[in-house]
Specification:
Elements lengths: L1 H11 L6 E4 L11 E6 L2 E7 L1 E4 L14 H6 L10 H15 L3 H14 L4 H12 L3 H10 L2 H17 L2 H32 L4 H8 L3 H10 L6 H10 L1
Parallel strand pairs: 1-4
Antiparallel strand pairs: 2-3
Length: 239
């Protein structure tokens, strides 16, 4: 945090308010809020920053806040394992109520889907929760299910039914969902890059197809600091 603060201050020569969002699952202990450098009898540095530690925030506190950031970050907040389908549904319900443009809705939807990925059993409970919602909310929330997730579900169901076994159905659903999520991440990252750098060289678009799900997550974060397409090419070469 101190290095980021120092570099941004040096680069832009503007006041910088240091704040960090921790999205890890564990530990749950309060994260440090200061960086200190001291010697016997001499304090050299006392650098303090604000901390937003998601796994210590109760998700229910944010379900009625009309904020796209809340819709995304609820997926990483404090919850019981049995609440995962409910939390994902509330994230999608909140997102549908915000009426964002397609690009922003897609970006937040991919975040929710990536960081609150449900098993086949949890998806069944998700669908059950969805069916119990008021009709107007249910319809709006269903429309938020991204096209690649729908496609993944359809492929998974078809594969599972062909195998004709309960185990095969569950594996097919999980595989279909994972394929759908992977393709969705590729589309969103490609859209972000095109908005940032206009037309992308064919070699770069082909390279995106080879990235893993984790690498796509890393690239989505890294591209915010890219100044030119050379930064993108350098990142791809290193990964």
């Amino acid at each position: 945090m101190f290095l980021y603060f120092a570099r941004l201050t040096e680069k832009y020569n503007l006041p910088v308010f240091p704040v960090v969002i921790f999205s890890y699952d564990t530990p749950h202990l309060p994260a440090p809020t200061a960086y200190r450098v001291a010697f016997p009898g001499k304090r050299v540095l006392q650098f303090e920053y604000s901390v937003i530690q998601l796994n210590r925030l109760p998700w229910r506190r944010f379900i009625r806040q009309p904020n796209p950031v809340a819709a995304a970050l609820m997926a990483k907040m404090k919850m019981q394992p049995k609440e995962r389908p409910k939390v994902k549904l509330e994230c999608m319900r909140l997102l549908s109520s915000l009426r964002l443009d397609p690009a922003r809705s897609t970006l937040i939807g991919v975040f929710i889907d990536s960081y609150l990925s449900l098993t086949a059993e949890e998806m069944t409970r998700y669908e059950r929760e969805l069916s119990s919602m008021p009709p107007y909310e249910r319809i709006a929330t269903m429309e938020m299910m991204t096209s690649w997730e729908r496609k993944g579900l359809e492929q998974g169901l078809e594969q599972g039914l062909e195998q004709g076994l309960e185990q095969g159905l569950e594996q097919g659903l999980e595989q279909g969902l994972e394929q759908g999520r992977q393709r969705g991440k590729e589309e969103v990252v490609a859209l972000q890059l095109e908005q940032r750098f206009s037309t992308l060289p064919r070699a770069i678009t082909e390279r995106l197809d080879d990235l893993t799900s984790g690498q796509l997550n890393d690239l989505a974060i890294a591209l915010m600091s890219f100044q030119s397409i050379s930064d993108l090419e350098r990142w791809l070469a290193e990964h």
